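tmp note - TIGR00730 family Rossman fold protein
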Amino acid sequence: MQIAVFAGSAPGHHPGHAALAAALGTTLARHGIGLVYGGGRVGLMGTLADAALAAGGQVHGVMPRALVEKEIAHRGLTRLEVVEDMHRRKAAMAAAADAFVALPGGAGTLEELFEAWTWQQLGLHTKPVALLGPPGFWDPLLTLADHLVTSGFLRPAHRDLISTDDPETLLRALAAWQPPAPKWDTPAAEAVLDSVAWVCVRDGRLLAVRTRGKDAFYLPGGKPEPGETAPRALVRELAEELGLRCAPEDLTALRTVHDVAHGRPGTRLRMHCYTGPVQGTPRPAAEIAELAWLTASDSHRCAPAVRQLMAQLDLAP
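out:
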């Protein structure tokens, strides 16, 4: 399990802020839970990461290149993933996490918190979102949430953020959490299918596969199992389909493609695409009938979502 933690790049004026960040890092490590965070060495972010590392935990930092160049990146992490911008940072953290927790922080922390909270309300993920702070720290935000409920802008079920001042209580609440109904019920005629896919381009050619009984090529990957994060699902699918080995932490979120699901009338596909190194040579296995390295001129042989992605890649003509 991995938890994404949003935290300030400043320490705050109250010593209790840093003490709680350190306690969270230590608690995650003690329970064998990986930490995903913004990759900084400063403020509460640095305190959190240092505590988790000191307790033997796994810490995955994700930081935009521009901030790395400003020399605020933590160089002692288990893994530091450098991405191009803030959007990719949030996407990578969201994809790697099983839950989201906000420690005290400023506008950036709130922006990350609100996006994770909004995605939960919309049903874009079914992961818990929680607040962890010294007593009273998050009360103004919770009061605002109550005001939004009474004003008719927030459903009561979506107001129920987990909020506590104790890391152990936090973990118990995360484990017991059940997702609320999404804000917008998706009609059966517009069902959404989530999938994960590996994007591998070599010499201008994209690796694609065709399953038995299908008439179009897809990207290697498939559907996550219940409770499985996207990176772990992709690791499993690559091993089953192509005999390839890789680690979830080595996969980097590339983009999400939305299109019609090929061969499934009335269903939309949400394809979460990743890149990353693997070990082994791809060979068809399980339900895979063949694999091919495709150029741009082969797009007509592919499912709609793959065609859309190919138009965005630098492929050979």
